[in-house]
Prior knowledge:
- By secondary structure, the chain is α/β, with parallel strands linked by helices.
- It folds into two domains: 5-216, P-loop containing nucleotide triphosphate hydrolases (Rossmann fold, 3-Layer(aba) Sandwich), CATH 3.40.50.300; 219-296, Alpha-Beta Plaits.
- It is built from eleven helices and 13 strands.
- The strands form three sheets. A six-stranded mixed beta sheet has the order 5-6-7-3-8-9, with helices on both faces. Strands 11-12-10-13 form a four-stranded antiparallel beta sheet, covered by helices on one side.
- Strand 8 and strand 9 (206-212) form a beta hairpin.
- The longest helix is centred in the middle third of the chain and has 16 residues, at 162-177.
- Bound molecules: adenosine-5'-triphosphate (ATP).
Amino acid sequence: MQPVLELNGISKAYGSIKALKNVSYEVPEGCVFGILGPNGSGKTTMLSIILDILKPDTGSFAWFGDPGSPETRKRIGSLLETPNFYQYLSAVDNLNITHAISGRGNTADIDRVLEIVKLSERKKSRFSSYSLGMKQRLAIAAALLGDPQVLVFDEPTNGLDPVGIAEIRELIKELARRGKTIIMASHLLDEVEKVCTHVAIMKRGTLLTAGNVDEVLANEDIVEVSSNDPEKLFSLLANFPGCTNMKQDGKLIQLFFPVGTARLEDVNRFCFEKGITLNLLLVKKKSLETKFFELTND
Ligand code: ATP
């Protein structure tokens, strides 16, 4: 299937600062694609390039296989920084202005997007009376005008409290259910893990990994075990066949295996036959946070 977005060898420098170094990846249709990276890793530069705000020094990108036409551009909605909404105007009036300036959407569309972001009941209230979460949802509504197929968001939950973050999470999931492809940069690892199907991890302008979240995370199986005598268990398991690494944290022992090779019944039998009864035995999925720090720590 044709990817929604394809980047080929994108590089960008600001003077001596190399913000992006030869970055290539593809964004498949219908995915929620999270771009993760520490501060200054190049996420905003990347989003600015794919939205034609900045020009890359080298490399190219194509939306829907097309290197760039105004028609293609209309299929992409974006939110890079909170738009300058008028404080004393209502949501409807503000979106009418956005529509007039951008040429996206129409009056009926304004009601539709306010419904999606759950602001219909407050659509006539002044912007100044909105909570931060509502303001951000209005900004997303503005990006939805004209019903674009792809949405690009830079840190959509920035500055929000846990309730506001959860609302944006549900909204992103809802947009994905409606078939939109979403590309978002974020700092919030657990948020990305909750909503994204795909992820790219960046560090100092270099792309460290990109792909399906499960594939990015599942490069090894982790088995967690514990017993009443963790020291004895640890020295016993040091001889367990196929195990590539072991860690101990108090009573908890983690065994690492190449992906797809861990078998709980073998671990259980091995321990039982050596006279140790386990009180915990489970396969653990690596969290995105663990993977992120593994990749980005020096
Ligand atoms: P953050 O998470 O802090 O927003 P980011 O991952 O979005 O960071 P960028 O904003 O793309 O990263 O910045 C990448 C690098 O380029 C950083 O070293 C930054 O200081 C530098 N940079 C970004 N914009 C400019 C600019 N206009 N002029 C000079 N340097 C810049």
